[in-house]
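Field reference: sequence -> structure
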Amino acid sequence: MNNLNPNILVIRQLALGDVLLCTPIIKQLYRDHNGQCNIDVLTMKPDIFLNNPYVRKILTPQTYPENNEFYTKTINLDLAYEKQPHIHIIDAYATFSHGYPSAIKDKRIELFSTNEDRLKAKAIQNELIKGDYIVIHMRKDKWPSRNLAESTWKSIVDLILEQTSYKVVQVGSLNEIAFNHDPRLLNFLGALSIHELKEIISDAKYYYGIDSGTLHIAASTNTPIISMFTSAHHRLREPLDRPQSAHFIPIQPDIDCYGCQENYTPPITGVVCHRGDPYSPPCKDSFRLGIIQDSLKKIAFLE
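Structure field:
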């Protein structure tokens, strides 16, 4: 290995989606040096960078103390967008890494599946799903504005079952939401790796979810996306640089403070809401089923 090649360390520890959104930055750094560089990442989500051709070494907070590399440059993206909540996350990262957003020539998220990942996903489709399907992620995690009521999710699932003939592949972690009241509902909570999930989404008719890390996994595919947004405006989270056929349909709550997060004094690192209890913000309960129904009709028309 050429010792003159610069060693670059990129840091973004959490969360899943935020780490995924670093991948365009890493690719641009690699291209800036025509591949003549060594890029290491320090993260608490190491699986994201498995098989990534632009990354030499994946470090975690546990393994980093044993790392004896000298770095020519360290790019710490922790709190990068939290300090710039009024611009797209990738543009916020680009400001830290390159000085200006347009330096990143391709802002598409990337995950690099192996042939084994693809074969596992294909076996699941052939043996368990058996037919056309959509993927849905019904989030139930730490950020309360993105945790819709279970009754809201059930209404959405029932609309999908009513308006389509597709199977509904429910994904997420084991603590999230899945239903079993119809034989077309398939529960895959906790069953898929990040890369297997990417491949399952790749062959879906469309992906439905809310602002989450799983949304950004979907953004690494060409599958059409319907996604709901609350405290963060969709223009700050939307998938970038996908082909025109990879439709993106955002759904916003029927509330005048939509996207409030960008209006607070940065850095935004915790739960915020100026309308009520931040742990039960009104935006999460302000989605009208009529708008959701219209989005399903629109995606069906685009198919």
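Note: Residues 121 and 199 are 6 Å apart (CA to CA).
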